[in-house]
Design goal:
Radius of gyration: 15 Å
CATH topology: de novo design (two linked rop proteins)
Shape: elongated
CATH architecture: Up-down Bundle
Number of domains: 1
Strand content: under 5%
CATH superfamily: 23S rRNA-intervening sequence
Helix content: over 70%
Oligomer: single chain
CATH class: Mainly Alpha
Length: 118
């Protein structure tokens, strides 16, 4: 992976976290959505944070471990977005766009992990 690709993924995961934060501010706050928002923001911003840790890993094993956490967090985001779409149907379309980005990031992380294990 060259430095441009690393930077692009670093920027992409940061933008994803920012988009999750912006989206979460649009969700109506009630007893159902508050815990969902909290979980979504935690997992959505964690994707990029763990990617940064993977990028600075001290070993191949550490890299794979940290990137696996990013992959898990991106999967978790998809779950919370699905729950939020049920709780606030008017945001389903926007949730779907974020879900697609979470899916793409998940696939990217999976491919990188697979390649590193070879």
């Amino acid at each position: 992976m060259n430095n441009n690709q690393k930077f692009d993924l670093e920027e992409r995961t940061a933008k994803f976290g920012e988009d999750i934060i912006k989206f979460s501010r649009k969700i109506k706050k009630d007893s159902t959505t508050l815990p969902l928002i909290s979980q979504l923001v935690r997992s959505g911003t964690s994707v990029g944070a763990n990617y940064l840790e993977a990028d600075d890993a001290e070993s191949k094993k550490d890299f794979i471990h940290k990137l696996s956490i990013s992959r898990k967090e991106s999967k978790e985001v998809k779950h919370w977005l699905r729950m939020i779409a049920v709780a606030t149907p008017e945001l389903t379309e926007e949730a779907r766009k974020l879900w697609k980005e979470a899916q793409e990031l998940n696939l990217i992380f999976s491919a990188i992990i697979r390649k590193k294990k070879e």
